Amino acid sequence: MAANKVNLQTKITYGFGQLAEGVKNTAFGTFLLLYYNQVLGLSGTLAGVAIFIALCFDAVTDPIAGSISDNFKSKWGRRHPFMYASAIPLAVAFYFLFAPPADLSSFALFIWMALSKSFLHSNPIFLMRTFRCQLWSTMNSAVTFDADC
To answer: What is the pTM of this model?
Structure first.
């Protein structure tokens, strides 16, 4: 069987899709806790619980998004329509995570962080991050069957 080699342009184009996930992961890993704790004054415990809530919600919605996209049919493929539809809401949710209203109480700030991070990761309307990043990561199996290319 002839190997299905992937050309450099396809590799670069596919890799470019990781940019959004990389920016999100860097912002979360480097700035989110620092920003909410040191700048906004939210306790580290509440910030950690807010992240835990969002990740638990994400753990439930990721398999749902995969199941929905696996059974979806369109002229653009199974995954592309969801990824395109999630791009703008993902950017808006990212903005609101780092732009809470001024003068929120500690508990209100906790709720804001938990809801905006949950909305960013995945929500019942757009499943933004889930449909964008999880589905993008499954596309590599559709590009080639050759693990060495």
So the answer is: 0.69
Q: What is the DSSP string of 25-86?
A: HHIIIIIIHHIIIIIS---HHHHHHHHHHHHHHHHHHHHHHHHHHHT---TT-SSHHHHHHH
Instruction: Indicate the domain borders of the chain.
Output: 9-140
Render pLDDT for 2-36 as a digit per residue (tens, 0 to 9): 456 778 887 787 777 777 777 777 887 888 999 99
Q: Are 5 and 149 in contact (CB under 8 A)?
A: yes
**Contact, 140 vs 87, CB < 8 A?**
no
Distance, CA of 99 to CA of 144 (rounded, Å): 41
Say how many Å lie between the first and final Cα of the chain, rounded.
14
